Amino acid sequence: MASRKRADCVLPLQDAWTESVKEWKQLFPEQPQPFLTCTHRSDEEQEILYMMNKNRKDDDGDGKIDESDEWRSNARPGQSKHNKFPSEALDVAFKKADGKLDWSEKLFAGFAILMKKRGIHWGGDWKKTKDTPHFEV
User: Fold this and answer.
1) Is the dihedral of CA 77, 87, 133, 113 positive or negative?
2) Exposed/middle/buried for 97, CB within 10 Å: 0-12, 13-18, 19+?
3) Would you call 85 helix, strand, or coil by DSSP?
4) pLDDT of 15-67, one tens digit each?
5) Which SS3 state, helix, strand or coil, does residue 38 take?
6) N or C: which end of the chain has fewer CB within 10 A?
């Protein structure tokens, strides 16, 4: 299973994560809160995610494929910044007070503002395939 440990990331990413989460909590205490879903992952885990992307499906029956349907990756093993150690990437999600996940584009975009001002790149800015949960150095 992929790591969710902040300590498994390069220091600039650890610092940006810590500072951004602190600022998010101060600015939006009643909103869903960010948490780490993935930092480092092995090449074997990357291969599974890559293959899952090739066979994606609509798991929640809403007629579209989205981040909540499956983990996915367009990167082959060794191509993802998650495969480096320490990791140069992390993925996030947002948790509501009731424990349910919220995959709202607005949440990711808001959190991206905080991470980007600390020098971190956001997958939501990618031109070809957007990856809104993804942040990297």
Assistant:
1) negative
2) exposed
3) coil
4) 999 999 999 999 999 999 999 999 999 999 999 888 887 766 555 555 455 55
5) strand
6) N
